[in-house]
Amino acid sequence: MAVSPFNEDSRAKLPAGTVSYLEHGAKSETLVVLLHGLGLDAHDYRTLLESHPEQHAVALTLQGFEPDRETYARPVGLQVHAETVSDFLEYLHKEYPVKEIVLVGFSLGADLILRLAELWDVEPDRSLRLHGAMLLDPNINHSTMSISRLFATARRDNPLPALKQLVFDAPNMYWFNVIADYASRLAAKTSVMRRNCLRTCSSTGIPTAMTRSGPAWPR
Predict the structure, then answer these.
(1) Over the chain (219 residues), what is each successive 10-residue block's mean pLDDT?
(2) pTM tops 0.85
(3) 3-state secondary structure 24-93
């Protein structure tokens, strides 16, 4: 398959549905696949992709994290995400059979790499040979999943208390700046989802109250 310089609206049809991804093409021997963190999406890697024009790289948006999603997604478990990542890697391997795949995950994305290893151990027929893997800030156990626990209880119609608590928990100014930037990205995405959901409910006659209960983020 021909490699284009940059494509920000790529789609892949997988068994679990269609997923979107960013792709920066290059004639490198390796293909770097990037998995984002909780509440983020592939676009958070755009600057990184563009700053390394010599490297062929792909950033996947996990199901339910699409920035332009019209409706709220039901919670998706790590197992389903891991299966989707496995299918996506198989898709890329078929598209670029001579390239060595390097898998990189941040936070939730790093957790998915660990879950993917478990999946491939149980179902070796689905496994692929990776050139390498990098886990950035993985959750070692449930005690480190403070953000996941916080957003699991956030309200869809009013996530502000959860976002405030997230920033309030910053231990110093460095982490305050990092977390504030992260919270602003989540707030922007939540506002779009809320507006789209209200518009969808209005056009379909679904009572707005039906969209207001339950956790806002996959657990």
Answers:
(1) 66 92 95 94 92 95 80 74 96 96 95 95 95 90 73 76 84 88 77 47 39 33
(2) no
(3) ECCCCCEEEEEECCCCCCHHHHHHHHHCCCCCEEEEECCCCCCCCCCCCCCCCCHHHHHHHHHHHHHHHH
